[in-house]
Design goal:
The protein is of the alpha/beta class. It is built from 10 helices and 16 strands. Helix content is about 30%, strand content about 25%. The structure holds nicotinamide-adenine-dinucleotide and zinc ion (2 copies). Its cofactor is Zn(2+).
Length: about 350
């Protein structure tokens, strides 16, 4: 079968022929129907060899949807032909966090060498995807696979990030979304669907700001040295109750620090890793800062329900497997609006 692999540190991904996997006991083989392209892939492909926590080659793609093609022995709960999405942050299934459905925070995954598909295990940018356990599957139930794929990460991650701040996002509150890309344009919609907040989106690209407005942002502004001032002006000087940073570089965490209100939340989702000084006098009083990772399986089901209600719609551009290396290149240069989805 064809697969898109990252084979060599620093080199571009390539389309290669690899053996079609066979499901062992308890495993499920999916015929992939859609695979989303996340900026984290570009992050991973920029890491030096000594930071890479897994071996290469790696088949990319951690936002996967497919049709059940073959069941390993002992698998129950899905049948051949079912359309299912893959919950990506696989855990051990046994620890306390996993028991709560928070496999994203499994306490033993690293020790046991369990890694998400596309981020250590073979991913969804291939004709077939092997899933280790039926519990990682969520029925798509009427959603278009091309829509469902981005929701498994670009939808789920902002949903989880926003959920921690829901008590602060009452009527009259303000939320700022920094970076209106794959995750950010869905964050705007989730905020509109689940909160009473006024939503301000910031980005460096005009087409991304236009998309943010199209999908429901009340205000948009360029993410530059005046951005925090714009947020202050739009909020009568008070600042934003919640700032979600989908970039995480020095200028954006600084905007977050300068635009958050007293008792507000800063949530850094982007993985660039710029430090944010926290301490008395460094941020407005009682600001809480978090850097969440992905979301829970139950939250993925909630995200799908929101999409079925029509509250969430990913803006997608679709491509074939063979085009993937070139699409990564375009994505790297900011030339994808919303999410790129590969349809093998
Ligand atoms: P994307 O490329 O689709 O979107 C990023 C957006 O940020 C683009 O619209 C870009 O124009 C904008 N941007 C760039 N520089 C900016 C700046 N200085 N100010 C404002 N906007 C700016 O990327 P994505 O796939 O949406 O991913 C966003 C980030 O989230 C990445 O860092 C990714 O690795 C990370 N991520 C984290 C998690 C997690 O669990 N924490 C999960 C998925 C993705
Ligand atoms: Zn991702
Ligand atoms: Zn666990």
């Amino acid at each position: 079968m064809k697969a898109v692999q990252y084979q060599q540190v620093g080199a571009a991904p390539v389309v290669v022929e690899v053996p079609k996997p066979e499901p062992g006991p308890g495993q499920v083989l999916l015929k992939v129907t859609a695979a989303g392209m996340c900026h984290s892939d570009i992050g991973v492909m920029s890491w030096p060899a000594d930071k890479l926590p897994f071996e290469l080659p790696l088949t990319l793609g951690h936002e996967g949807v497919g049709t059940v093609a073959e069941l390993g022995s002992g698998v129950r709960g899905v049948a051949e032909g079912d359309s299912v999405a893959v919950y990506g942050p696989w855990g051990c299934g046994v620890c306390w966090k996993c028991a709560q459905g928070k496999e994203n925070y499994c306490t033993r995954a690293a020790e046991l060498g369990i890694r998400p598909p596309g981020l250590g295990s073979p991913g969804a940018m291939a004709e077939y995807l092997l899933v280790n356990d039926v519990r990682h599957l969520v029925p798509v139930d009427g959603l278009d696979p091309v829509q469902a794929a981005p929701l498994t990460d670009a939808g789920l991650t902002p949903y989880h990030a926003i959920k921690r701040s829901l008590p602060k996002l009452v009527g009259g509150s303000t939320a700022v979304v920094i970076g209106a890309g794959g995750l950010g344009h869905l964050a705007v919609q989730i905020l509109r669907a689940t909160t009473g907040a006024r939503v301000i989106a910031l980005d460096v690209a005009d087409d991304k700001l236009a998309l943010a407005r199209e999908v429901g942002a009340h205000d948009v502004a360029r993410s530059d040295e005046n951005a925090a001032q714009s947020v202050r002006e739009l909020t009568g000087g008070l600042g934003a109750d919640v700032v979600l940073d989908f970039v995480g570089i020095a200028p954006t965490v600084q905007i977050a620090a300068q635009s958050v209100a007293v008792e507000g939340d800063i949530t850094i989702v982007g993985i660039a890793g710029a430090p944010l000084p926290v301490g008395f006098g460094l941020l407005p009083h009682e600001v809480s800062v978090a850097s969440p990772y992905w979301g829970s399986r139950a939250e993925l089901i909630e995200v799908f329900d929101l999409a079925r209600q029509g509250a969430l719609r990913a803006h997608v551009e679709t491509f074939g497997l063979d085009e993937t290396p070139e699409v990564y290149e375009r994505f790297h240069h900011g030339q994808i609006k919303g999410r790129a989805v590969i349809v093998p």
